[in-house]
Amino acid sequence: MFLWNLSIVLSGRLSRALADIRRKAAGAGVLSLLLCVMLLSSGTASAEPLGWGYVNATDVALRRGIGGKVLTRLPLDTCVWINDSQTDSSGVLWYEIRTGLNINHTNYDYSGWMKAAFINAGADVWHDITAIAASSCGLIALRADGSSETAGRPIVAMDGSGWVSPRGWAAPYGKAIRVGVPTTGNEYFIVTEANELVSTVNGLRVADGLRKAAALEAAEAVICDVPFPVWGQDAETVVFRSAGMAPPRGNLPIEIYIGVRADGSVIAEPAFMAERLADWNDLTDLRLTNRYVMGLKKDGRVLLAPYVEGVDLDVSHWQGITAIGAGNDWCVGLQADGTLIFAGDHVFMDEGHTRK
Fold this sequence. Notes:
- This protein is mostly beta strands and 356 residues long.
- The protein is built from five helices and 25 strands.
- It folds into four domains: 40 residues, no CATH class; 73 residues, SH3 type barrels, CATH 2.30.30; 93 residues, no CATH class; 108 residues, 7 Propeller (Methylamine Dehydrogenase, Chain H), CATH 2.130.10.30.
- A six-stranded mixed beta sheet has the order 7-1-4-5-6-25, with no helix packed on it.
- The radius of gyration is 23 Å and the shape is globular.
- The N terminus and C terminus are likely disordered.
């Protein structure tokens, strides 16, 4: 009766697999049959990462595996990247997460498993979003009510007292009308209703916020032998981004420049990037990292073109996207309903981090 009920609730391929197991295990005894069933139904993985989330309780255990050894205990509002999910044999949902912590002035990168009940993520966090900005450091999102959410690496507290979660850093400054990250991507900023810019670098209110925000997001000076494009005469260019990368030969980085014209076509330098993006059209926006280029089409679809090895990001099925953001190993799309969709797998570790 147990096996008959199980085959009813399981669907499609799994049901057919169970029927096949019953036939093959007829002469092998009930124990073998039950072992096969347990292997098939022991866990389910999510098709897409849930992306950024926050620990919702104090002193929560992060474990090496599901139900495994405790690696560390995370405080409330610790920012995490949720890469995968799985249910254990008792039906409890777990998340595979990554997080970055600063302990005694040392940065640590942790990877492990935590019960999903202790993490807020998905639409519980990322809802009513109207604008996003992203970088290798993380994500900042603006809500319709002027509040914002920030997720990513730890930041220095506004009073300089130490490293803290980026969550809620902008709340004391009131409603925001714009959020962003600079070209360097090492901080987050908001522009308030009073047109003041405030960033996570020092928390100072700076006047003429919208203009300064545009300057922070503009391309930086050239850093190698690629000349700065004379695009000022091209009045049709409406979006502009730049990033450095290591060329196949030599150790010096080169600068890449990309833009979107009013007709949706792409302008890019150097020549290899222009060739790679030559077929892109009907675009409204571009994002460039030091690993890939991401483009948003007018119909809400998203394009992605790696230009180094090891990029594993699939956005081919995304539809109805109104804005995009890009980190080095992950990306995000703002959906028409105000929620977010993620791809990739963020790793906090960089120079100065120690893996746990």
